[in-house]
Amino acid sequence: MTIPVQAAVSHLQAAKVAIIPTDTVYGIGALASDARAVAQVLAAKGRGRQMPPPVLVSDICQLDGVVANIPTPARALMEAYWPGALTLILPAHPDLSWDLGETGGTVAVRQPNYPLTLQLLSQTGPLAVTSANLTGQPPATDAAQARAYFGPQIDSGEIYLLDDGATPGPVPSTIVSFAAPQPKVLRVGVLSVEQIEAVVGKVDG
């Protein structure tokens, strides 16, 4: 493991916030299991609890105890597009004690297609990660943009910036919700509605 990745792992494991690259844009995140650190992520962005961050995982095994179940269509989408730019909203496990915000009994999950991030996640476990920007501003697609948003916190050591050059963004992940029996596309991003429907059939959106 490279020194910058190990430094990011140590920072996150100390219940602190880090900015990391993904296969879409840079994200700002913390251990999903640490409510205080997640609150710091939301505060740094100027974002309220009504917009809880998605959870990034290194593999499907990290969803054990996080989601109540994976509906067959959701599993089909995982097999087709994970790792990749697809976020799935699934029913949260009834015993999940994480405080990600006002989730309505669900959790948004994604496995990013970015080796450095997967390496990081394999060490830290699930991370609550949202786009690295101030609310209402464009997401950062390189470290310079991230620093423009969070420079003072980075310089103070409050936030660790894992710089891996430019990311493929700015197009975000596509979000599909399985909160109801019928899948619903909440946001069209890298994947089109047609690509989703090619796997699961007709969806709402």
Automatic annotation (TrEMBL):
Taxonomic path: Bacteria, Bacillati, Actinomycetota, Actinomycetes, Actinomycetales
Reaction(s) the record says it catalyses: L-threonine + hydrogencarbonate + ATP = L-threonylcarbamoyladenylate + diphosphate + H2O
Gene Ontology MF terms in the entry: ATP binding; double-stranded RNA binding; L-threonylcarbamoyladenylate synthase; tRNA binding
Keyword hit for tRNA-binding: no
A Gene Ontology cellular-component term: cytoplasm
Main location: cytoplasm
Enzyme Commission numbers on file: 2.7.7.87
Keywords, alphabetical: ATP-binding, Cytoplasm, Nucleotide-binding, Nucleotidyltransferase, Transferase, tRNA processing
Transmembrane intervals: none
Protein name (Swiss-Prot/TrEMBL): L-threonylcarbamoyladenylate synthase
Family: Belongs to the SUA5 family.
